[in-house]
Amino acid sequence: MTNDNIKFSYNIRLPKDAKPYWLNQFQEFANHFASMQVHMVQFGKQDLRGVPSITLVDMNHCVPRQEFFQSGKELLAFVQGYNMAQSKFDRFADYKKGIFKAA
After folding, report:
1. Which residue range(s) make up the domain with 88?
2. Which terminus of the chain is less hemmed in, N or C, by CB atoms within 10 Å?
3. Count of the separate structural domains present in the chain
4. How far apart are CA 93 and CA 9, in angstroms?
């Protein structure tokens, strides 16, 4: 994964006390797509359906992938779970390469 920060935008209500946490989760999620020619990741209500979604926007401003959710909480849980799974996978891959040393 590259260190480039992919732009993201959100149109979803976040809990005030946890807003910095969720913004960090959104940035971490967006950065997973840095190597896939993704220009921006949008979180929230983007279309006429009125349901929350995650939208990937490529360099040509086209939408190659959009995932819909039943609620904002479901979207947040998906982002959190995806980041957690990717983190564990990255640590496992590093361990297999001999980079990761258990504490």
Report:
1. 7-94
2. C
3. 1
4. 30
pLDDT along the chain (103 residues), means of 10: 73 90 93 85 82 91 89 93 84 59 52
In this predicted structure, what is the pLDDT of residue 98? 61
Please give the Cα distance from 38 to 77 (Å, whole number): 22
Q: Is residue 99 in some structural domain?
A: no
Count of C-beta atoms within a 10 Å radius of residue 68: 14
Q: Which residue stretches of 2-60 are H helix? A: 19-31
pLDDT value of residue 45: 82
Whether residue 60 lies inside any domain: the answer is yes
